[in-house]
């Protein structure tokens, strides 16, 4: 488990490479929910998601420990891929990213724009391992890596340092790296704050792991409009963090995500991706108990969406 | 012309009723343009646009001068209407708003949600005057009012106070109230900063006024996807501010606005309305001379858009 020292070292390590994103007030959403709402705007982070934090921390920490990195191999549906390509360019490292054939086109294009090489494959982990071995590149896991988790934890550390003391933090869950880091940062400073994770019912790797008692592959290929949350398995490390420090994981259906997505867009005026709307979907579905005027942080995990996805809002 | 004292009084007057919006860094947009970009995020303002500033300042200033206000009558295509209804509710004043039948549906709904009464009419000013006279309400002009201009000037004052000293400020232009206020605030503090206004070529009331030498109605009904900029005439006061303090007014076509809208959404990760994208459209069209790495503020005037409008992005 990462310590407060690990997290503050990560924060110092990535400070020149990432943005300290604002914690914005959410008065309209707050009024509508009867809560005191703040929005941790990781959509404003470099590459449009929190993923830049973990990637920079992992690469820079490996260098600090004396590793010679000659290239980066990553696998991801999109946001980690973009972050890896961006960090690779920033650190002058060739980067190859394995992405699923169904990845959001704008995310694939963004990887290429950052100079990353894209391999489209259904076997993300297998292909990525192969490429890393062949080329002698460093494999960069999207979530199951203590340095990646320490990087994501800086989101939590910034919330703690913001002066807005949350009663509740709502975190979208894919493989579990973000919620692991946030829970580690928040619970070690504010043990009374609740941390609740939300995942699509059709991409529920963490719920599956909790039911099984261990992280493992989902029986079906996960699919969701919240494409950033479609990890095929929960991280083994993340499973440990979640069982230790997360209050609960809840699941939301696709219709709820679509409705919540527009509501979040309209009420926050931030361009966020569907993955970042699952917290509101869970609240609207009555899945999370709250007291009136509680201080609630919505972690706006990312903002990488496409015109085609936005057009789907008119269907609702 | 409003003075720096008028502006600081306005800022103090509206401080409890409006948000001091962030001036956000725009690293992606800046990299893409070769400029040092900052975004004045008025889409995050109460009611989703800068209009709340002018409305609160006008109503509160009238009260300070001893007026008894029993109700508010306003006319607007949308954002001023929403701000008037919001301020009316906040100040416990009944509010009626005249809007054109073609107004964005989500803006009409928002006025009603804030408790405003909506009258759909093609004769905005005439109907509004009539209603104000009949009911004894205060008419609240969307732009041609010194208190409204002083309220919008607080946007400029916040830019000046931000520590980011702009070489250039890009301001969307409808009737001209926003650019009047911003120019007054910025030019009286930073005379070297250029202020450039941008309007749709199909809704170019200010260009029309500059050509005619005086503010007056456009010969054709203005139409643009930048619905917030479709004022049928430029303000007489605004005409004076623009001729005194604005460096130039440029015009952009609809295709440019549509392309710039998606680029702004994607690169800023802010939900902004098409009106707020005209500055980028002008830059991309080569209408504005800039030097490399100049410090440029984009005024993100508002974020009130609809799923239907967003769906139009796939057409491009």
- Mean pLDDT across the residues of chain A is 96
The CATH architecture category of the largest domain in chain A equals: 3-Layer(aba) Sandwich
- Provide a count of the helices of chain A: 13
Q: How helix-rich are the residues of chain A, as a percent range?
A: 40-55%
**N-to-C order of helices and strands of chain A:** HEHEHEHEHEHEHEHEHHEHHEH
What's the structural domain tally of chain A? Answer: 2
Q: Could you state the oligomeric state of the chains shown?
A: homodimer
Task: Walk me through what this model shows.
Two copies of one chain form a homodimer. Chain A is an alpha/beta fold. Chain A has 13 helices and ten strands. A six-stranded mixed sheet of chain A has the order 1-2-10-7-8-9, with helices on both faces. In chain A, strands 5-4-3-6 form a four-stranded parallel sheet, with helices on both faces. Chain A is globular and about 55 Å long. The model of chain A has no long low-confidence stretch (mean pLDDT 96). The interface between A and B is medium-sized, with 28 and 28 residues.
